[in-house]
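Changelog entry

Holo records now carry the ligand SMILES as an explicit input line rather than a separate metadata file. Below, a converted record for NAP, shown in the new format.
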Amino acid sequence: MADRVIVVTGASSGIGASLAQQLGARGPRLVLAARRADLLAQVAQRASPRALAVPTDVTRREEVLRLRDAALRAFGAIDVWINNAGRGISRSVLELSDADVDEMIAVNLKSALYGMQAVVPHFQERGAGHLINVSSFLSRIPLASPRSAYSAAKHALNALTANLRMDLARTHPGIRVSLVMPGIVLTDFGRNALGGATTGFAPPSAGPMKPQTADEVAAAIVALIEQPRAELYTNPAHRELALRYFGDVAAFEGELLAPRRE
Ligand SMILES: NC(=O)c1ccc[n+]([C@@H]2O[C@H](COP(=O)([O-])OP(=O)(O)OC[C@H]3O[C@@H](n4cnc5c(N)ncnc54)[C@H](OP(=O)(O)O)[C@@H]3O)[C@@H](O)[C@H]2O)c1
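Structure line, unchanged by the conversion:
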């Protein structure tokens, strides 16, 4: 880990900030990106003397290219690139405007596409590298309808991630591509959602949908860097839930709605 160069987007808060902190303790050179420059600089300072903060709006392709170039200029190579930046929404399907959908696609899908297209040619030249896309459990089971267009964008992210992984497995087996699907995580994600926090939602205090902390999710991502694999449910209970969902979607949805009918 200590000799690697790791790029993390969305590092100014939440999961990305926690990841920067945990990675920093392991000694790699870090390149951290987000828009809020002050917060990002504080995270970098706390994480490691070898952390570089690069203010970046990941919805702009030229800024993502600039991020890659800043990492290469500072450290000469990139070993791991983590597309973690993202944003939620609090609007149901029938409430969505064109602008809502465009924003969800820009920040959750195109941002990661820009990251993939920026760094993978570098990985291909070296024949090695690890690309990690942070998606969501909602990308596998869209069980929170106010997150509608967010879940849709993350579903699309899963598809691009899987396609890239299969393409590279044929030509560049030394490059790893991973998808991370956290469930509910205790960060400012809900407050930062387009449309604000959803009202009347209280995360369950027990069971498979019990929230994780940003530190728990970051620790799972650190373990993924150490032992790459295709997909990671940061909450191990979610694999079983996904199998049940795909086994019988209608029954699963029925179970989900049942308490609300009482
Ligand atoms: N929290 C959850 O319940 C949850 C569950 C599943 C998946 N996730 C995913 O986990 C990832 C991190 O979310 P989080 O929970 O840590 O939420 P968060 O605290 O709101 O952090 C989001 C991060 O993304 C950055 N970001 C947003 N838009 C950006 C842009 N246009 N350009 C650059 N950076 C941008 C933010 O930084 P700036 O505002 O400074 O730019 C911030 O650092 C996201 O991909 C999210 O979809 C979260």
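Spot-checked after migration. Residues 9-16, 34-36, 39, 56-59, 84-87, 107, 134, 136, 182, 184-185, 187-189, 192 surround NAP (CB under 6 Å). The first strand starts at residue 5 and ends at 9.
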